[in-house]
Amino acid sequence: AQKVTQAQTEISVVEKEDVTLDCVYETRDTTYYLFWYKQPPSGELVFLIRRNSFDEQNEISGRYSWNFQKSTSSFNFTITASQVVDSAVYFCALSRSGSARQLTFGSGTQLTVLP
Amino acid sequence: DAGITQSPRHKVTETGTPVTLRCHQTENHRYMYWYRQDPGHGLRLIHYSYGVKDTDKGEVSDGYSVSRSKTEDFLLTLESATSSQTSVYFCAISGGGSTDTQYFGPGTRLTVL
Predict the structure, then answer these.
(1) Cβ–Cβ contact A35 with B under 8 A
(2) What confidence tens digit (pLDDT) does each residue in A51-105 have?
């Protein structure tokens, strides 16, 4: 069985602070995929990043960066110099390899960035 | 943005009535999924489809059925709605392959009274 844990239910920071959202996963598969999605107050789900299990390189995209560590089964997401527009619920998700990749989601972290 | 629409966007119904939600895509993607989102649970998979007339159950399939008669449409039916099925329902699509990513529709908010 697969499981994704986002232990931080809610985080509140002041604008321009850095913030890290934690994601810990469990799987018995050797090949798998990890994702982050953003859900702003408007409700849609926005894809942010996909990472393959065999690629442990960290990734940076503008103010966003992701730290994937297989040794600790973690895929953490950092926002540098946070902005009010970053306020949203962030979901980490895990899928198996194979043709129909059903996603297993964490329960999400509500990030509030205060001006 | 992926071409995914869901209808209706909002629906209020009564316990015991049948409800059908529609997901329509213009991307010609092979895979389609239905998830429900509830507080504290994230999103959970209800059913998915890997082709026309090919569907399978997800984690929380009890009380739901699906049909896919065309590539572009994936229907979710609640045969007899219950209050526990009050939720936000999201459809997702993906094309498959090594770089597969699911893209989500705007969601349908269903309230069962």
Answers:
(1) yes
(2) 888 887 788 889 999 999 999 999 999 999 999 999 999 999 999 876 557 899 9
Beta strand B73-78 with B42-51: parallel, antiparallel or unpaired?
A: unpaired
State the alpha helices, DSSP H only, in B32-73: none
CA gap B68, B42 in Å, rounded: 25
Write the CB contacts of B78 (distance below 8 Å, at least 6 apart in sequence). B18, B19, B20, B63, B64, B85
One-letter amino acid for residue B3 of the chain:
G
Q: Mean of the per-residue pLDDT values for chain A?
A: 92
Contact B96 A108 (CB under 8 A): no
Can you tell me the distance from the alpha carbon of A89 to that of B107, in angstroms, rounded to the nearest whole number?
15
The pair of three-digit structure tokens given for residue A33, joined into one six-digit string: 């995929």
User: What residues of chain B lie within 8 A of the CB of A23, using their CB?
Assistant: none
